[in-house]
Amino acid sequence: MSSVNNRPLTPAELEAFGNELDALRARHVATLGDADARYIRKVEAAVRWIGVAGRVLLYVAAFSPLFAPLLLWPAGILGALLLGLSKILENMELAHNVMHGQYDWMGDPALQGKTYEWDIAGTSESWRKTHNFSHHTYTNVRGLDDDIGYGLLRIFPEQRWHPFFLFQPLIAIIFALYFQWGIAIQDLRLGRLFLGKATVGQLWKQSAPVRRKVTKQLLKDYVLFPALAGPFFLTVVLGNLVANGMRNVWTYVVIFCGHFTADAETFPKECVQNESRGHWYLRQLRGSSNLTGGKWMHILTGNLSHQIEHHFYPDVPANRYAAMAVEVRQICERYGQHYNTGSMARQFGQVVWRILRHSLPSKPAARPALVAEAAH
Questions:
Q1: Dist. CA 56–CA 79, nearest whole Å
Q2: Which tens digits make up the pLDDT trace of 30-79?
Q3: Res 374: pLDDT
């Protein structure tokens, strides 16, 4: 339960709150242009060339026993790190933001939100459904946002406890290591099979796009690229495994820090009935958490270090969030609303505590409506 006290807003204040945040968005959208286009193209180029450097170094490491055995570990480690960095940049700052339609205005076919396909096991089509629509529309609304615990973890006291959750500290670690696979199967809702709401045949048919994408990813990282190293393929396989693991764990930490800290709230389904723009902003604010840090923190998190701003403006280029955050925080302060931010160590520490604490039995907590003044 959050210990934050937010000042109650009158209906007029709530409307004004929403209007100010809308106006901020309009000002930034009106000035989108060459600088934003150059930025995302630099990111695109960085993803490509850092990835190439990483893969070349993995081949250097693979063939090093033939000409320079001492290069094996340095080249292998650096190659895996660079490839992992490329995958993190592609996943966070390029793919995620492009798929939100942040750069559709450029008219570049390679940067269109509805057609971009990213470098993970899950399909972009599935992500646009579960994330862009369900999560961003119903952020932290119980029963509508499947990202609350991803069907595996009890993060909030409002979630009903089951004995299965006793294992969630271990499950959370496994989920972090294989995060892309959890995302890949999220929309399949495998729990329906155990509840008798779907058959194996139905799920097999529904999973066809995911199976095609998974096959493509496995062939690329663990068959085709390693095959180029011939008998020294194992070094390349291990390098790709480390790189994918880096991307999985980093993405998991960033996303969990953005949604499951101590002050993050969940909401009942009733709160979205006839929800006004001001109410929507208020719910996004109270269900999101930011991370403090410098330029590279923001880039490597895909600017999800500005999770509040991302939830307010998911279709605005993320390189604008740092500037927008200054004004968003000022607006929140004027209206007496808590702006949840902190270091990654602090925020993730709260996430870990939630995972541990709510693995144990407790009665489901009953939160009040979003806020008393937000009742419709």
A1: 7
A2: 999 999 999 999 999 999 999 999 999 999 999 999 999 999 999 999 99
A3: 43
Residue 197 half-sphere exposure, CB side, CA atoms within 13 Å?
6
- Residue with more model confidence, 150 or 239: 239
Write out pLDDT tens, residues 99-153: 999 999 999 999 999 999 999 999 999 999 999 999 999 999 999 999 998 889 9
Vertex 267, ends 261 and 272: CA angle to 5°? 135
Please, are residues 257 and 246 in contact by the beta-carbon 8 Å criterion? no
Question: Maximum CA pair distance of the chain?
Answer: 75
How many Å from the N-terminal Cα to the C-terminal Cα in the chain? 23
Domains of the chain, residue spans: 11-30+122-201+253-374
Please determine, for residue 27, whether its predicted confidence score (pLDDT) is greater than 90: yes
At 61, which amino acid appears?
A: A
Question: Do 121 and 217 meet the contact criterion of CB atoms below 8 Å apart?
Answer: yes
Is the model's pLDDT at 364 over the cut of 70? Answer: no
Tell me the average pLDDT across 319-331: 98
The pLDDT confidence band at residue 196, using thresholds 50, 70 and 90, is: confident
pTM: 0.93
